[in-house]
Amino acid sequence: MEERAVRITEYTESLFPEILALYRDAGWTNYTRNPDMLANAYKNSLRILCAYCGASIAGVVRAVGDGCSILYVQDLLVHSSFQRRGIGGRLLDTLFSEYPNVYQTILLADGSEELSRFYRKCGFQPVGAYGCVAYFRRKLPD
User: Fold this and answer.
1) Per the domain annotation, does 137 fall within a domain?
2) Per the domain annotation, does 14 fall within a domain?
3) What is the b/e burial string over 60-86, where b = at least 16 CB atoms within 10 angstroms of the residue's CB?
4) CATH number for the domain including 83?
5) How far apart are the C-alpha atoms of 112 and 99, rounded to whole Å?
6) What's the pTM?
7) Which of 60, 75, 104, 135 makes a 20 to 30 Å CA pair with 52?
């Protein structure tokens, strides 16, 4: 696939069913079991960009934060049938171009070697490289 065949668009609420399908494809059941939470999260996000290949949604990136001191990449998903085509990188590059002066950009990801290589290629480093430790707290299901 040629890079120019990917079209990056702004998210609108009408795209939510397609977005939910991306989360299903990725197996992110915390969101698919609670689509109302995901819809509210999307409404309260700083920026959401979608990637299309033709008429098909290929990926999404969702950021939260203040866009000045912190940009947190909450979700980056590329549909399994479109992976390894540069779409995730294009989504991140587009997002970063909209916030060129943000002090720090953070994301959490699983520790797979494949994702580690991808995020390092995109300019990320493990927090330990900066002498930092990440802490995580989540609400457990009732």
Assistant:
1) no
2) yes
3) bbbbbbeeeebbbbbbbbbbeebeebb
4) 3.40.630.30
5) 27
6) 0.89
7) 104
